Amino acid sequence: MVDAERRLLANALKDPDNQHFVLLSDSCIPLHDFDYVYNYLMRTNISFVDCFEDPGPHGSGRYSEHMLPEVEKINFRKGAQVLLDM
């Protein structure tokens, strides 16, 4: 899944018209129509994604050596997405 997202972003970055990216899972259900969400996201300068070092079981404790050589343990971070109240 990560490899597919990485390839998707790599190809999307080839087009200079692409300036913002929104990655949604199959369980994401928009509460507003497309135009509302699009306009909200395009007009903000806030990042809704964060990553940080978490040494616990839900952070780097989930690291697997199968991620090598692309992701070394020292570069592994926990990600978070912010819930939007639009």
From TrEMBL:
Any one annotated GO CC term: membrane
Residues in the signal sequence: none
Pfam family, one: Branch
Name under which the protein is recorded: Core-2/I-branching beta-1,6-N-acetylglucosaminyltransferase family protein
InterPro entries tied to this protein: BC10-like, Glyco_trans_14
Record's keyword terms, sorted: Glycoprotein, Glycosyltransferase, Membrane, Transferase
Its membrane topology: Single-pass type II membrane protein
Domain of life: Eukaryota
Record's subcellular location: Membrane
GO molecular function, one term: glycosyltransferase activity
Organism ancestry: Eukaryota, Viridiplantae, Streptophyta, Embryophyta, Tracheophyta
